[in-house]
């Protein structure tokens, strides 16, 4: 592999992976904060207001990290992927510009009001500013998913004389069926991160015997939201996206499942290590015929294996694709199990005293992050060797005049910068959690 | 259609420079003008609710540039690779400097972020000025529409210049001085007391420098890119632009002396807009001139997106703009008036972020 290409791929992969740790919590927490504020307004209960303010503080720190790590993303289309930008800018420039114009302005204007304006606004107006931040962050996610969906499944374009692609139908671009399922699946994943974070902090307080009232609210809201969205993540959103994949990117599906030969009644591999040169799976644990059923709803249906496609259209890192996909699905299944169990205990009124369950909730915090990250790696590695599926290869898209040396210089710079940002983030958030949701009015000092 | 988008992108960039310019400027004068912790908090509070929104103009302008002129975006962003990455790092440092400073009541922590905020603001002003200088001077575009500039070569003009040469360094200094004055006038407007007075005298003392640099940069530009006079000679109405620039510069001085703070700040906004419009007027229809061969110039015609996309964009852009202006008017109205620490309890008015755990613990 040409080393400049490798550096530019790593550059984008590293910065986007780190960046997306923050927006998933932003987008996941925003609706939960709206729920807390609505409950506060309905029940006239100060506890819910304190709970909302506590999460708003964490939201604020998280949001600023998302903003500062997000700025480089837009720039990198031009800096590191200029040939791709020139080729596809006539189409995806639409959605990227719309993100700035519709989502960022909305978010940034109302974030200030939401974080800084509680005293200046009536409780209702403050709730609406929270709703505006919620809508802004979800709109932002929508435009980004539409952009990625176009790269996965290009629609609404025509080829121009100079070889670039140009928009031919605005609505086809926005209503790309791929984008619909991807957006639903992605946003549900974000809410899972938010719900697990809330439940985890709540469990932390309950286990430590501090802020018990708040801890119960956090656990309750987190478990209910977590259960709903963990189920939605599997069905219909994950299922819908899988069918889309089988139809539009059959090569990717075969590589994700490490299905080397086309098979009628194809098995689902639960665990096993793909051996690409030998075209087999080592140490497989399988469910017979399940892959055929999940994909086509028929036990005997034939699923196309990698042998049905020319090797130069295979994703270039099949083991990584296979693992990230299996990590995502495996964790998603575990999330459903955890949340069903926690919800049962909550329903029976035993959750707040079931210390073993609280420990599970506490320790499960990192796993939704891993699942969301693995899911995105699956989507992006799965699209390879294409940058725009079927239209442009990744090898054609990077900035040819930006050498590997210059790219590595800035990649290392970002690694250093993000290490510092990550440490600062963990430090500040753990301080907030440690100091707790009860704020004494500072005027008293 | 490419001309309409040329104007729209220019307006958005001007809006970014005027708006983020004052909070960058507030950052530049931050260490010099604000001596006590209270004064520093006042400056931070005067920009706290709006700086993020101001910076969004950069992202929105960047996105719109990408949408309207993908070829230009691809070429300029990859060609200015290193300085752009450094701008990104500075923007990040500055963002966390502003937002994280108030999370701990610790002099070492706050002192560190004070310096980060001030330095990154000053460097950003210089970088943005140098970027504009590069666009006016021209870059070594190849016939394929791409180029790559090292940070510096020999600091001289020529067919293969670096990002920094004497002309672009001068443009960076012009930007630094301009935004210093702009920020000082904003702080004068938003605060009073000792801090307001100091900001005012700072604005007055950089004024002569600003006048000299404006003159020098106009003359230098005349020599660096002689073709700038063509548009002015074809459309003599363009000569109004330098008139507006000097008139607003004069008004800045008069209004500041007489204590008409809002007028002085608005004059500075007009001055900045005038300088940018003057540059853009001279360039049109070129958006990135080539230092190699004028045939390689990127113009609004050879770098624009397809006609259908640009037409559709006009509809949603107008809608989004109306909405955004609505939000901004609303937010600025909510936070209008002078910043006063004593009338606002340090409680949730500054937002949850400001009630640091230390604060809470102290009061417990």
User: In which range does the helix fraction of chain B lie?
Assistant: over 70%
Could you say which overall geometry of chain B the principal axes of the C-alpha atoms support? globular
Number of domains of chain A: 1
- Using the alpha-carbon principal axes, give the shape of chain A: globular
Structural class of chain A, please? mainly alpha
What is the strand tally of chain A?
8
- Total number of β-strand segments of chain B? 2
Low-confidence stretches of chain B: 342-364
Q: Largest interface: which pair?
A: A-B, 83 and 81 residues
Q: Note the beta-strand portion of chain B.
A: under 5%
Sequence of secondary-structure elements of chain A: HHHHEEHHHHEEEHEHHHEEH
Number of helices of chain B: 14
Task: Tell me what the structure shows.
The complex is a heterodimer of chains A (445) and B (364). Chain A has 445 residues and is mainly α. Chain A has one domain (3-262, 304-444). Chain A is 71% helix and 7% strand. Chain A has 13 helices and eight strands. A two-stranded antiparallel ribbon of chain A has the order 1-2. In chain A, strand 4 and strand 5 form a beta hairpin. Chain A starts with a helix and ends in a 10-residue tail after the last helix. Mean pLDDT of chain A is 92; it is low at 441-445. By secondary structure, chain B is mainly alpha-helical. Chain B has one domain (2-355). Chain B is built from 14 helices and two strands. In chain B, strands 1-2 form a two-stranded antiparallel ribbon. In chain B, helix 1 runs antiparallel to helix 7, helix 1 (2-28) crosses helix 8 and helix 8 runs antiparallel to helix 9. Chain B is globular, with a radius of gyration of 21 Å. The termini of chain B are far apart. The chains are: A mainly alpha (445), B mainly alpha (364).
What characteristics describe this protein?
heterodimer, A: 445 residues, mainly alpha, two-stranded antiparallel ribbon, two-stranded antiparallel sheet, 13 helices, 71% helix, 7% strand, globular, B: 364 residues, 2 strands, disordered C terminus
């Amino acid at each position: 592999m040409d080393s400049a290409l490798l550096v530019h791929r790593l550059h984008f992969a590293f910065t986007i992976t780190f960046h997306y740790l923050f927006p998933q919590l932003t987008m996941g927490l925003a609706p939960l904060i709206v729920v807390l504020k609505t409950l506060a307004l309905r029940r006239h209960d100060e506890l819910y207001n304190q709970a909302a303010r506590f999460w708003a503080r964490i939201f604020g720190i998280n949001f600023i990290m998302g903003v500062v790590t997000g700025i480089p993303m837009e720039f990198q289309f031009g800096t590191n992927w200029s040939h791709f930008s020139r080729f596809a800018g006539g189409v995806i420039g639409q959605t990227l510009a719309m993100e700035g114009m519709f989502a960022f302005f909305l978010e940034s204007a109302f974030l200030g009001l939401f974080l800084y304006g509680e005293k200046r606004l009536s409780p209702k107006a403050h709730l609406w500013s929270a709703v505006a931040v919620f809508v802004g962050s979800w709109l932002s996610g929508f435009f980004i998913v539409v952009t990625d969906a176009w790269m996965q499944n290009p629609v609404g374009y025509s080829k121009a004389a100079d070889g670039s692609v140009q928009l031919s139908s605005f609505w086809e671009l926005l209503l790309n069926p791929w984008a619909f399922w991807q957006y639903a699946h992605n946003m549900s994943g974000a809410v899972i991160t938010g719900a697990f974070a809330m439940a985890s902090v709540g469990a932390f307080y309950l286990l430590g015997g501090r802020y018990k009232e708040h801890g119960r609210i956090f656990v309750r809201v987190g478990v209910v939201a977590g259960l709903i969205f963990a189920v939605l993540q599997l069905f219909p959103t994950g299922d819908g996206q899988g069918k889309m994949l089988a139809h539009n990117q059959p090569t990717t599906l075969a590589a994700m499942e490490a299905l080397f030969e086309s098979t009628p009644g194809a098995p689902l591999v639960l665990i096993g290590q793909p051996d690409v040169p030998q075209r087999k799976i080592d140490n497989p644990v399988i469910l017979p015929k399940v892959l055929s059923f999940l994909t086509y709803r028929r036990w005997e249906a034939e699923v196309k294996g990698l042998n049905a496609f020319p090797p130069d259209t295979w994703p270039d890192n099949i083991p990584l694709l296979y693992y990230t996909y299996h990590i995502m699905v495996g964790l998603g299944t575990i999330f459903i199990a955890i949340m069903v169990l926690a919800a049962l205990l909550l329903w029976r009124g035993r959750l707040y005293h079931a210390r073993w369950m609280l420990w599970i909730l506490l320790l499960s915090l990192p796993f939704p992050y891993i699942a969301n990250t693995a899911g995105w790696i699956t989507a992006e590695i799965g699209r390879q060797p294409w940058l725009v599926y079927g239209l442009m290869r990744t090898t054609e898209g990077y900035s040819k005049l930006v050498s590997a040396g210059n790219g590595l210089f800035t990649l290392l710079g970002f690694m250093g910068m993000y290490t510092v940002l990550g440490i600062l983030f963990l430090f500040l958030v753990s301080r907030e959690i440690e100091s707790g949701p009860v704020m004494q009015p500072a005027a008293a000092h | 259609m490419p001309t309409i988008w040329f104007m729209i992108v220019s307006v958005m960039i001007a809006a970014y420079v005027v708006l983020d310019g004052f909070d960058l400027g507030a950052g530049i004068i931050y260490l010099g003008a604000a001596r006590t912790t209270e004064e520093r908090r006042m400056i931070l509070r005067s920009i706290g609710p709006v700086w993020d929104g101001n910076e969004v103009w950069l992202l929105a302008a960047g996105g719109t540039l990408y949408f309207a002129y993908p070829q230009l975006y691809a070429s300029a962003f990859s060609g200015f690779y290193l300085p752009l990455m450094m701008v990104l790092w500075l923007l990040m440092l500055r963002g966390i400097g502003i937002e994280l400073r108030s999370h701990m009541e610790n002099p070492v922590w706050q002192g560190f972020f004070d310096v980060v905020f001030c330095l990154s603001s000053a460097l950003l002003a210089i970088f943005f000025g140098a970027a504009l200088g590069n666009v006016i001077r021209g870059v070594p575009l190849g016939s394929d529409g791409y180029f790559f500039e090292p940070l510096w070569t020999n600091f001289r003009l020529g067919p293969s210049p670096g990002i920094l040469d004497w002309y672009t360094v001068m443009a960076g200094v012009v930007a630094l001085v301009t935004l210093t004055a702009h920020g000082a006038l904003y702080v004068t407007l938003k605060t009073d007391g000792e801090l307001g007075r100091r900001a005012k005298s700072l604005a007055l003392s950089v004024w002569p420098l600003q006048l000299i640099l404006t003159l020098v940069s106009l003359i230098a530009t005349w020599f660096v890119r002689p073709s700038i006079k063509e548009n002015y000679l074809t459309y003599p109405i363009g000569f109004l632009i330098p008139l507006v620039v000097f008139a607003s510069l004069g008004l800045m001085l008069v209004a500041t002396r007489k204590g008409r703070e809002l007028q002085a700040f608005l004059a500075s906004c007009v001055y900045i807009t005038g300088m940018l419009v003057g540059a853009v007027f001279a360039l049109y229809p070129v958006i990135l001139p080539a230092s190699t061969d004028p045939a390689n110039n990127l113009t609004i015609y050879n770098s624009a997106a397809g006609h259908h996309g640009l037409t559709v964009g006009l509809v949603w852009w107008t809608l989004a703009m109306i909405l955004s202006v609505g939000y901004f008017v609303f937010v600025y109205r909510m936070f209008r008036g002078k910043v006063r620490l004593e009338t606002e309890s340090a409680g949730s008015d500054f937002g949850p972020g400001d009630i640091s755990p230390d604060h809470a613990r102290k009061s417990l």
